[in-house]
Amino acid sequence: MAIDDLELEVVREFDLIFQTIQSYLTRSPITPSYKDALWGALARFSPRQNELSKSNLTILLPLYSFQVCGGRGEFHREISAAWYLFYLAADLMDGVQDNDLRLSYSSSADSPAVWLNLASGFFFIADALLVQLLDRKANIESAQDILRAFQEKLLIMCDGQQQDLTQLETTLPDYLKMLEKKSGSFFSLACYAGARMATNEADSLIRIAEYGSHVGKMIQILDDLEDWHQLQKREFREIHLGKWRKTLPILYTLDVLPDDEKDLFRKTLAAVETQPEEVGQLVDYIDRCGAAVYT
């Protein structure tokens, strides 16, 4: 598929997803002001549709998984719309957790609570869209299986997020397990749910789910690598300091350094949070260990 064709496919898929969400909101009994707030957040945090990036290409995963597993005819956009809403809800909740600058435009003292409430709205709209599969002419057995998959995979993702939030220092093996639970499970879900509308053949579903898991883990590793490149360029103010300790280059460095140097590295890492001029020493440590190459 040519790049122009892929761009058109992304735009078309976003349009259909937004139509699906808007159709539900139109029928919903919630107040117009809350509908406007939900729609505004959706528009604000959705990636630009006419740019190819990992943020918007992933929206094609359910549809392409349906097609690659032999799906023909209508694809139920409730699956893609629900998965995308869960994606946005998780992104909003992470943003509140990390004091994301994207959420700081409002001077309202309760803005974190507002963002969390909007994220909750996205969760429940997504769930309602999935329930609609049972009312459509979709295969009931497939629809029930997809609902179970969403519940199970999202709970596993929450398990990984709990691990991320509660462990002060994470080892490299723990990080990789957490990556599997969070990003791996979530993108595995996108592929599995799309494919399940096309087939119930176990081997095909296992393989497509594994593919989605690898995609999810690679996306998170790319994010860590982008953080590392910002650190190298001394653009570290754009990286939330609390996340440094749980990025792949940092954890790899801690894993391979001798014990005596690990303590020095930890002190350097702590110093950078209050003394930004120490960032050069931190970069030297990580470079010397080959962490960027490993990532």
Question: How would you concisely characterize the structure shown here?
Answer:
The chain has 295 residues and is mainly α.
Q: Summarize the amount of helix as a percent range.
A: over 70%
Distance between the termini: 29 Å
Structural class based on helices, strands and sheet pairing: mainly alpha
**Shape, per Cα inertia axes:** globular
What Rg is obtained from the alpha carbons, in whole angstroms?
21 Å
Q: Let me know the average pLDDT.
A: 85
Q: For the report, how would you describe the main beta sheet? A: none
What share of residues are in beta strands? under 5%
List low-confidence stretches. Answer: none
Total number of beta strands: 0
Number of helices: 13
Output the helix-strand order.
Answer: HHHHHHHHHHHHH
